[in-house]
């Protein structure tokens, strides 16, 4: 049996960004490696046996075996080289838990940045209507609900671009980027911080700051619209599985009197025809909607 000398190489100490980037890269199926090694083994056997028989005075037919064996060795080598290249490009990955912890840390930093940019201190937050008892940035784990804490509301929803997503071993869909919405309710007004977070690089884009009087908030609504979910992939027992297609996107929208609005993805029903749903990371949106509506109503009534 021929042992391949070409093997995937990994950095000795990959950093967190390296691991997060490769979390979203599809690893080559294990069968590709097995096929390449099989071609090398069969090719080596055919080449060796045919060459020996030819040297011992065998018929010219063994020359064909030499050529076929050589071709199989060449093809097997290039297949194994390509497998190793793809493996190195896609591995080593962060785990589902590590990606969740990374997202939680990034959300905590965004929450602090939001309060800093809006010039709001913890003492400014109003909790008399339950408004300041929001959802702490989620600490990770698909079945672990976000705990309440005295602070602003921080919620997040997936961005569907690019159209390639990762389904973790726990069945949860994870995305490269998320829309993040931080609401900072004070006694007299609502401060809103919005951004798009790239979970791989940690960078934030499309940052917007808004401040509204409670009387300016016209409506909070959930709006359904069709969308192309893109492609989600998952590795099960070394085999890549894919899901994707049309879906129904549910958006939470906060609309004010001026016509401005803030929105964030609250859920995805997939596929559109089957009435199933995509399992997302718990983001605290349920608690967010309930408490924010209660807060706005209370602030309007107390004027």
User: What's the tally of helices?
Assistant: 5
Arrangement of strands in the largest sheet: 5-4-9-10-11
User: Structural class, from secondary structure content?
Assistant: alpha+beta
Overall mean confidence score, pLDDT: 78
Biggest β-sheet strands, sense, barrel: 5 strands, mixed
- Rg from C-alpha positions? 27 Å
Count of DSSP strands:
11
Proportion of helical residues? 25-40%
Strand content: 25-35%
Distance between the termini: 83 Å
What multimeric state do the chains show? single chain
What is the domain total for the residues?
Answer: 2
Order of helices and strands: HHHHEEEEEEEEEEEH
Unreliable runs: 1-5, 128-149
So what's the overall shape?
elongated
């Amino acid at each position: 049996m021929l042992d391949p000398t070409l093997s995937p190489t990994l950095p000795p100490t990959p950093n967190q960004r390296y691991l997060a980037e490769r979390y979203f890269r599809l690893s080559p199926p294990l069968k590709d490696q097995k096929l390449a090694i099989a071609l090398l083994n069969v090719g080596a056997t055919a080449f060796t046996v045919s060459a020996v028989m030819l040297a011992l005075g065998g018929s010219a037919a063994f020359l064909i075996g030499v050529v076929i064996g050589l071709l199989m060795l060449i093809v097997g080598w290039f297949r194994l080289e390509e497998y190793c290249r793809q493996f190195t490009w896609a591995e080593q990955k962060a785990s589902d838990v590590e990606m969740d912890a990374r997202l939680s840390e990034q959300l905590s930093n965004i929450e602090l940045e939001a309060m800093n940019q809006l010039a709001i201190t913890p003492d400014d937050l109003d909790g008399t209507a339950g408004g300041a008892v929001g959802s702490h940035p989620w600490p990770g784990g698909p079945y672990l609900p976000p705990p309440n804490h005295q602070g602003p509301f921080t919620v997040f929803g997936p961005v569907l671009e690019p159209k390639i997503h990762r389904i973790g071993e726990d069945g949860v869909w994870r995305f490269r980027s998320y829309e993040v919405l931080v609401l900072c309710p004070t006694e007299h007004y609502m401060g809103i911080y919005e951004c798009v977070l790239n979970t791989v690089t940690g960078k934030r884009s499309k940052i917007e700051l808004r401040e509204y009087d409670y009387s300016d908030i016209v409506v909070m609504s959930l709006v359904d619209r069709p969308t192309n979910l893109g492609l989600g992939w998952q590795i099960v027992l070394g085999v890549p599985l894919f899901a994707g297609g049309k879906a129904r996107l549910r958006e939470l929208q906060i609309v004010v009197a001026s016509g401005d609005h803030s929105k964030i993805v609250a859920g995805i029903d997939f596929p559109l025809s089957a009435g199933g749903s995509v399992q997302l990371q718990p983001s605290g949106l349920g608690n967010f909607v309930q408490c924010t509506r209660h807060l706005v109503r209370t602030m309007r009534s107390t004027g």
